[in-house]
């Protein structure tokens, strides 16, 4: 359809109360990219993993996703997907909307009233931290010990902040996208569990047999003062520790992709570029390759998951060390979410800057990469910076010291 419908208004009208639903969001006020809204049925089969990622994409003017699966994969590798056949696709650049599966969706969306005002969060006080800042500093020291011993070059240490009580998951997402809009955001609800994400990081984009990954390593806070803000971005761009950390993960992702890509096809498309978001500047790179014919989505994930930006390097050793230090599963945080198409195309984002909502509580994961040059106070502060906006969407605050 030529003409525009606000995705937020359409979702609120059509799917806000649906038990199994999704909104993959290009961001508040996006002027490029695609958003998708719809509902589906839970699908525990392995079908998404069996899609051939090297078949020609069915993408056309109606977008890259033409039906398949929407869902997530936890850091520990557990998957949950919705089988999706009827949905709306929003082309933000062309300002056009397309209906798949059920043309009546478009008719109903045209009747959507403006989305209601975003409600202020009920104040919930201070979140409960899994560890204290002092304990996190001790874990940073343990990471540096492991690096000194040669067991790793870099380790992505993480923790969790929990807010007790039931919340309206959709309203949490609406608040989050108002303050932390991102090109790879999303809201997925599967029964009593939901994900509200303002992720800035694309994990895997697959189309026509090519795969791209966009690792993020390196963070600085934003400032309301333009001069200070520009200085923070430049400090990030030139910081030797942050640059080294990012390059380590680029090398790791090159190695991961080389397991399933044609020889000599893996390359670095972007290196050490600063991208700015509402609350943070991030240091981003891009690696891509051409998949070996017949490679499935499952084989690609087996070679690349979890993302190196959330583990460290070397990956296997880093994961062993982190499991010993963190002493708790990460769950959905550090995993990935997005869509997998019937045609083998896919677009998955990292579960970071996100809220996981369960029946009696919601929680936020946050962390950062530790290298030999890491300073504990700076790393503790970075965790607080990353957790602040997702916790605010819940009406909660970061505990003192973070």
From TrEMBL:
For the Chorismate-utilising enzyme C-terminal domain, which residue ranges apply?
134-386
Q: Which UniProt keywords apply?
A: ATP-binding, Nucleotide-binding
Full protein name: Metal ABC transporter ATP-binding protein
The region called Disordered is annotated at 40-62
Is the ATP-binding keyword given for this protein?
A: yes
GO aspect biological process, one term: L-tryptophan biosynthetic process
> A Pfam family this protein belongs to?
Chorismate_bind
Q: Which domain of life is it from?
A: Bacteria
Q: Which GO terms describe its cellular component?
A: cytoplasm
Q: Which GO terms describe its molecular function?
A: 4-amino-4-deoxychorismate synthase activity; ATP binding
């Amino acid at each position: 359809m030529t003409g525009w419908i606000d995705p937020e208004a359409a979702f609120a009208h059509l799917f806000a109360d649906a038990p199994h639903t999704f909104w993959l969001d290009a961001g508040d006020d996006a002027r490029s990219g695609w958003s998708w809204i719809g509902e589906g049925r839970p699908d525990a089969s392995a079908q998404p993993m069996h899609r051939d990622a090297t078949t020609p994409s069915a993408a056309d003017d109606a977008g890259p996703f033409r039906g398949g699966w929407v869902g997530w994969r936890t850091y520990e590798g557990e998957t949950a997907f919705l089988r999706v056949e009827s949905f709306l696709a929003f082309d933000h650049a062309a300002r056009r909307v397309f209906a798949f599966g059920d043309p009546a969706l478009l008719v109903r969306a045209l009747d959507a009233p403006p989305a209601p005002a975003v409600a202020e969060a009920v104040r919930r006080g201070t979140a409960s931290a899994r560890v204290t800042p002092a304990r996190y500093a001790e874990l940073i020291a343990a990471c540096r010990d492991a690096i000194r011993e040669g067991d790793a070059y870099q380790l992505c240490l993480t923790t969790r902040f929990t807010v007790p009580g039931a919340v309206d998951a959709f309203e949490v997402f609406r608040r989050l996208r108002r303050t932390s809009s991102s090109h790879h955001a999303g809201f997925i609800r599967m029964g009593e569990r939901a994900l509200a994400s303002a992720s800035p990081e694309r994990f895997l984009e697959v189309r026509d047999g090519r795969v791209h990954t966009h690792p993020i390593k390196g963070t600085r806070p934003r400032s309301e003062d333009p001069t200070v803000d520009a200085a923070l971005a430049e400090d990030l761009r030139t910081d030797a520790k942050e640059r080294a950390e990012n390059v380590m993960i680029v090398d790791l992702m090159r190695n991961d992709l080389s397991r399933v890509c044609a020889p000599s096809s893996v390359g670095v498309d972007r290196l050490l570029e600063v991208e700015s978001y509402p609350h943070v500047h991030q240091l981003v790179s891009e690696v891509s390759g051409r998949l070996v014919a017949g490679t499935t989505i499952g084989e690609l994930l087996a070679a690349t998951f979890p993302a190196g930006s959330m583990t460290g390097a070397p990956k296997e050793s880093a994961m062993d060390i982190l499991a010993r230090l963190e002493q708790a599963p990460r769950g959905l945080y550090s995993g990935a979410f997005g869509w997998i198409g019937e045609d083998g195309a896919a677009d998955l984002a990292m579960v970071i800057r996100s809220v996981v909502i369960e029946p009696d509580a919601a929680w936020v994961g946050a962390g950062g990469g530790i290298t030999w040059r890491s300073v504990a106070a700076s790393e503790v502060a970075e965790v607080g910076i990353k957790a602040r906006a997702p916790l605010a969407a819940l009406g909660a605050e970061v505990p003192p010291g973070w």
